[in-house]
Amino acid sequence: MRQGFPIATRGQSIGLLGGSFDPAHAGHAHITREALRRFGLDQVWWLVSPGNPLKTRGPAPMAQRIARARRVMPDPKVVVTGLEAGLGTRYTAQTLARLKALYPGVRFVWLMGADNLAQFHRWEDWRSILAAVPVGVLARPGHRMVARQALAARIFARARLRAAQARLLACADLPAWCFVQMPMSDLSSSAIRAGGDWRDAAEGRRAWT
Ligand SMILES: Nc1ncnc2c1ncn2[C@@H]1O[C@H](COP(=O)(O)OP(=O)(O)OP(=O)(O)O)[C@@H](O)[C@H]1O
Ligand SMILES: O=C(O)c1ccc[n+]([C@@H]2O[C@H](COP(=O)([O-])O)[C@@H](O)[C@H]2O)c1
């Protein structure tokens, strides 16, 4: 394994939560705990992104975002990484192809909030992502209807597992995706950047819907 890359063994199920984490907040921690439990994952790796290809604004420095993410999510099952910077990949499809080659036999699951499902069809080579790994989608306020309305969800409607089957997702035949509802956090990095109250966000004191 490449130096500085997390360890995973054959047969393990690893969730990958990519994001700008600019900054990380209790909403990220919440969906990660839910994903571990609902999808029966062994670990979740946070992929702190060098920069979302669809966003024009550059994020805060990587080291700063990683350090904060580790404070927000000090869970032994969660590994905060800068893997995409290490791999030199920019698009999720590329990242997944590289990780699957580096970790043969590991079952990766791509995780994302429901807001990302809404625009998933705009991602580079998005169909290849669904061909490569199962996708777990976590509810987010304002995106209740996305599992029915998003273009990618409609095109791949037959690949959808019911929430009751969530634990089967990591081993499911591809393509497969699953949307899980749960108590939601209304936290977002953009609201934190706008409001400047980072401490409350880290400790999750904001409202839950
Ligand atoms: N409160 C939340 N509920 C559900 N999913 C979330 C929540 N916050 C973030 N996510 C998901 O976590 C992943 C990484 O999110 P990201 O780092 O972009 O944070 P963000 O709060 O969405 O940022 P921004 O407000 O700048 O768009 C994405 O898949 C996103 O959908
Ligand atoms: O591959 C793409 O085209 C693509 C487009 C938009 C977002 N993503 C990924 O989605 C994840 C969430 O991005 P963000 O900026 O909403 O935190 C992060 O890992 C991005 O690299 C990927």
TrEMBL record:
GO terms for molecular function: ATP binding; nicotinate-nucleotide adenylyltransferase activity. It comes from the Bacteria. Keywords: ATP-binding, NAD, Nucleotide-binding, Nucleotidyltransferase, Pyridine nucleotide biosynthesis, Transferase. GO terms for biological process: NAD+ biosynthetic process. It is an enzyme of class 2 (transferase). Pathway: Cofactor biosynthesis; NAD(+) biosynthesis; deamido-NAD(+) from nicotinate D-ribonucleotide: step 1/1. Residues 16-194 form the Cytidyltransferase-like domain. Its EC number is 2.7.7.18. Pfam families: CTP_transf_like. It catalyses: nicotinate beta-D-ribonucleotide + ATP + H(+) = deamido-NAD(+) + diphosphate. InterPro entries: Cyt_trans-like (IPR004821), NadD/NMNAT (IPR005248), Rossmann-like_a/b/a_fold (IPR014729). Belongs to the NadD family. HAMAP family: NaMN_adenylyltr (MF_00244). Catalyzes the reversible adenylation of nicotinate mononucleotide (NaMN) to nicotinic acid adenine dinucleotide (NaAD). This is Probable nicotinate-nucleotide adenylyltransferase. The lineage of its organism: Bacteria, Pseudomonadati, Pseudomonadota, Alphaproteobacteria, Rhodobacterales.
